[in-house]
Design goal:
Layout (H helix, E strand, L loop, with lengths): L1 H20 L6 H8 L3 H12 L17 H4 L3 H9 L29 H12 L29 E4 L3 E3 L6 E3 L2 E4 L7 E12 L16 E9 L6 H10 L1 H8 L4 E3 L5 E2 L5 E2 L6 E3 L4 E9 L6 E11 L10 E7 L12 E8 L3 E7 L1 E2 L4 E9 L6 E8 L8 E2 L7 E2 L4 E8 L27 E9 L1 H15 L27
Helix pairs in contact: 3-6, 5-6, 7-8
Bound molecules: heme C (HEC).
Length: 494
Amino acid sequence: MRDMTRFGRRSAFGLAAALLMAGLAAPAAAQDAAGEVTWSKDIAPILQRSCQQCHRPDGGAPMSLITYEDTRPWARSIRQRTGLRDKQDAMPPWYIEKDIGIQDYKGDVSLSDEEVAKIADWVDNGAPRGNPADAPPPLEFPDASVWTIGEPDLIVSSPSIEIGASDPDWWGPIGDSAIEGLAEDRYVAAIEMKEINDVEPTGGRETVGSRWGIHHLVWNVVHPDEYTLEELEALRESDPDEYARRVGASVIEQGFWPVHEVGRNADYFDPKAGLLLRAGSNIIFSSAHLHSTGTHMKSRLDIGFKFHPRDYEPEYTNILLAYGTGDLDIRGGTANQKIESFRTLPFHAKLTIFEPHLHAAGTRMCLDAIYPDTGRMETLSCAGYNHSWVRAYSYAEDAAPVLPKGTVLRITGYFDTSPGNKNVADPRNWAGMGDRSIDNMLINLAQGVRLSDEQYAAELEQRRRALNLTPGQYVTGCPGCGAWSADAGQNQDQ
Ligand code: HEC
């Protein structure tokens, strides 16, 4: 559809040029009517798809972008924010770089180059409304909350917390919630975590953290068959390692639930690696980092669960594949500082989620893979970073990297402590690793699945079929896809 519009415009120009050449200048108004970018025809569909889930009354964003009247006063600001693409203040808050690495992600609401250009054209041309009859019917928002995973099958809320206007950063457990309304055990296909608070979306701090108070919240699900809440509490003293294993994420952990981060979006698990949610369990919110916003606030976390069908059985186990380094030395007042961290995969794996985690000074992270045997390196994903929006990028089904054992995963974090990074409270400060938002971190909170030799071979085969690859044909993130076994030869005919 987008292409047809572009084609339409080009042919209108072509017509104008032909008329000029024939000595018949086409009236300007006629040209505009054919090619003009209008709110009704061009901009409203973009806003509906990529903006209104937040930019509507009670949507959490500072202003509504539902009607033309809502949108018009923000035209210049919209042009500026969408033009930032993958840089810190970009809108929508989705920072994957479009010119490098894998491009297919689930829940991607980012704008195409054509859409960004269209918005710029529209604003430069006076942000006209156009013909109201061209506008798509308005979307309906029956509930305050819009979930990108679709209407959740179950929502569990954390206990409510209060944060003072200027409280120092705080870390600790915030209690537990019984899972209610779940009659039987179910496997979870996707989750979305949302901070629900009473902060006015406008105003607040100039630096990071004006909108949300929960910087992170680590949680896990514990069933009374394993530990009752009392037994778990006793473990804290008697066996701290087991306690940590049950309630807090370690570096590589099976069957663990993702961490909530400030401004976070949805997690889509590998379809073959649904996570089991047992009826009658409790959710333990074992480690929160709270960060004041400049106003006194009440807040909680809502976790929306989307289930697989009842008869679903997983083939794989989802794993948290977090790695990074605390060896950080970030100078004050300096843009474009680079720090790397490496991890060797101890097993074959499919990577399902890339989640850059930096802090206020962080502006970008790239993930590269260095393959065993060949030593070849390629970039899987690069994303800008804004510490007010910690995003998780779930690879689309046939784009998720399928990596052989021994692959070295490299992350490169980029830090900017110059005055150009408004998230940094005081650009003069040196900062190292630390828990506060003004300290630094460098972690890829990746998720994936471990694959046996047979499963690895089957995943390669499935990928070749899905993408219709010919022998030797190469795709990013799948070094084995191009290497064919003799019995896979029948694919050559496709
Ligand atoms: C996930 C929710 C979300 C989505 C999707 C989203 N926004 Fe925003 N937007 C926000 C929030 C929250 C803020 C205020 C905080 C900030 O600037 O990061 C904001 C700020 C803005 C601002 C700056 C307002 C000001 O005060 O100057 C503009 C302009 C904007 N958004 C436009 C858009 C457009 C256009 C889209 C779609 C192409 C979009 N946003 C998509 C949540 C969202």
